[in-house]
Structure formats: structure tokens, C-alpha cells
Specification:
Largest sheet: none
Structural class: mainly alpha
Number of helices: 14
Distance between the termini: 18 Å
Shape: globular
Order of helices and strands: HHHHHHHHHHHHHH
């Protein structure tokens, strides 16, 4: 398989530019009336299709095989679904001095979503870390996140989100879990087709997420979202997210060292345990927050770009560590073993 490619020369993810453009389109030409109903229905179908593709792509065997390295994956899961949420809850003290309540809810939500797959693998490869571990850690995190993220949102956000209720739970099951399980069940027959048409389906993935963002921000415009967020609040949010990312990068690196992991494993833990998935988080927010999704996804979109820029710099520096010149063992031979979908 091909070695993971990451455009390290590009400081800004082109997809973020498209997302920002979609937000701008929703601000200028928001969907109204019948158009809004059509966009909402299409967004619902797109979310279901997205999670069907996630299920069809994700190798359960690959994720479960990684359990043999249970200490590493347990560490990544603890960072993703325990440490991150604890830090998110701690940020509650910043309301209303630095953050508004809606922005805080979005910040807390971003701490609940699963880790990335593709970028974790790519950065781990660049830094000469344990790529197979990054593959399994990202895959297992996505698998756990299908259930863990909605449950954590119900427990920590409650009715402060989009009005989490029994109806929300039904939507989660129907729009997220059922399509995902269907994709897993059918993977045996359609997995090859999905792999062969990865580029085309990747465009469908991204187009679907853009539709979700357009629908969310169109609804936000009708509710006067931009009157709720000032430039000062956005600046404060960026500072808070910068601190959050810094804390997680330090905890994953030095915490993994304290737990006795070697360099290659520490790299995989740092990149898989410090990042959050935009591709999984955006559609989940659409289901969980409904009409309030626009402010909920804003912190995640900003954090996504920040983590890419910072981790690109770290990965390059790790690649030139003196330890990186030493033979890394099986990890080097497996560095090309990458066949996951975009996250």
C-alpha cells in the first residue's frame, strides 16, 4: 500500500478553506422556507450515508487486533475520552469571563469526539513512529466513539446542547449507529468496491460534510448566530484551544514516557491521543445539537486546523531526533501499512 502522504509544505488544510467558504455561503445565502427543509432532509441523509461509509471502511479486525497492544490503545482511549473531557469540564470556569455559554458547549463537545485516523497515521509516519499502532489506535477510537461520544454528550451536556432527549437518542441510533453497523455487516461484500473507489467516495464524504455545515450555519443565521459571537470571544476561544492542545501534547508525550513506552510508541500516542476528528465530529454535532449545531461545531473547526499546523511542525522535528536515526524495528517495515479512510 502507499505510504501516507501529508502536504507538510501546506500550513493550511485546503478543506478548512472550503469549510470557511461554506460558512460564508450560508451567511450570504442561507436556506429559507422550503429550501431549508430540503437542505435539512439532504443533510440527514448525508449523515447516515457518511456513517455507512465509515462502517464499510473501518476494519474491525484491524482495530481489534490492536488489542494485543492494549496498554498503548488504553492510553490513547483514556486521553481521548477521559482526560480531554475532564479538561473540557474544567474550562467551565472560563464562562462568562472568556467564553460564552454556547462557545463553551462547543468546546466541551470537541473534547468528546474520537481521535483522527488519517492525520495521526501520516504524522506518526513522518516522525518515524509506530505506524501500525497509530492505525489501530485511530481505528479503535473511531469505533468506540460511535457509542462513547453520544453517551458522554448526554451525560455532560444534557439539555444544554440541542435538547438531548429520548428523541435525540432515537436520532443517534437511526442516523449514526444503524448505518455504521450496516456498513460493517456489508463490508465483506462492498469493502473492495469502497477501497477501489476511495478517491470518489472521499469527495462524497467531504461534500456531505460541507452540506451538513451549510445546513447548520443556515439555521444559525436565521437565529442571529453572529450576534452571539464577537471577535474578542473568538480570540479568547483560540487562546483557550491553544492551551488545551498544548496540555494534551505535553501529557501524551511525557505521560507516555512515564508509563515506560518507547520512542516509537510515544509518537503514536502523542499524535493519536492529542487530536480530534472533524469528519466524525461535524455530523455527530448535526444530530446531537440540531438547530444549535452552528456554534457547537465552530470550536471543533478551529481546533482541527490548529492541531494540523502544530502537529506538522512537531512531526518534522521528531523526524530529526537523534533517536530517529536508530533502527526502529518492525514499525519501519510496516510504515506503508496504511489503508484507512479519511478522518
Amino acid at each position: 500500500m502507499k505510504r501516507p502522504h501529508w502536504p507538510s509544505w501546506m500550513p493550511i488544510d485546503p478543506y478548512i478553506v472550503l469549510l470557511i467558504g461554506t460558512v460564508g455561503l450560508a451567511a450570504l445565502l442561507p436556506a429559507h422556507g422550503t429550501g431549508a427543509d430540503v437542505a435539512s432532509g439532504a443533510s440527514t441523509a448525508a449523515i447516515a450515508f457518511l456513517f455507512f461509509l465509515y462502517g464499510a471502511r473501518l476494519s474491525t479486525r484491524e482495530a481489534l487486533d490492536g488489542l494485543r497492544h492494549w496498554r498503548l490503545h488504553g492510553t490513547v482511549l483514556a486521553c481521548t475520552f477521559v482526560v480531554f473531557p475532564v479538561l473540557g469540564l474544567a474550562a467551565r470556569g472560563l464562562v462568562p469571563v472568556l467564553l460564552t455559554q454556547p462557545l463553551y458547549q462547543g468546546l466541551l463537545f470537541l473534547t468528546l469526539v474520537p481521535s483522527t485516523i488519517q492525520s495521526s497515521i501520516a504524522f506518526t509516519s513522518i516522525a518515524r513512529g509506530n505506524v501500525p499502532a497509530a492505525i489501530c489506535a485511530g481505528s479503535f477510537s473511531s469505533l468506540v466513539g460511535i457509542v462513547a461520544t453520544p453517551l458522554l454528550a448526554a451525560a455532560l451536556l444534557g439539555n444544554s446542547g440541542g435538547g438531548f432527549s429520548a428523541d435525540s437518542l432515537v436520532k443517534i441510533v437511526l442516523q449514526l449507529l444503524v448505518p455504521f453497523v450496516a456498513g460493517q455487516v456489508l463490508r465483506r461484500w462492498i469493502g473492495g468496491f469502497v477501497a477501489r473507489h476511495k478517491k470518489v467516495l472521499g469527495l462524497v464524504d467531504r461534500g456531505s460534510i460541507l452540506l451538513v455545515v451549510y445546513t447548520a450555519f443556515s439555521e444559525g443565521m436565521t437565529q442571529g448566530i453572529w450576534h452571539q459571537v464577537s471577535a474578542v470571544r473568538l480570540g479568547a476561544l483560540l487562546v483557550v484551544e491553544g492551551v488545551l492542545l498544548t496540555v494534551m501534547l505535553l501529557l501524551t508525550w511525557y505521560g507516555a514516557r512515564a508509563l515506560g513506552f518507547g520512542r516509537a510508541d510515544r509518537i503514536a500516542i502523542q499524535f493519536a491521543g492529542s487530536k480530534k476528528s472533524l469528519a466524525s465530529g461535524l455530523p455527530m454535532a448535526g444530530v446531537l445539537f440540531g438547530a444549535h449545531a452552528s456554534l457547537a461545531v465552530l470550536p471543533l473547526m478551529l481546533f482541527h486546523q490548529m492541531q494540523l499546523m502544530v502537529c506538522a511542525v512537531i512531526a518534522k522535528r521528531r523526524a530529526h531526533d537523534p533517536e530517529a536515526a536508530e533502527p526502529p524495528g518492525p514499525a519501519a517495515a510496516s510504515r506503508t501499512a496504511v489503508g484507512t479512510g479519511s478522518r
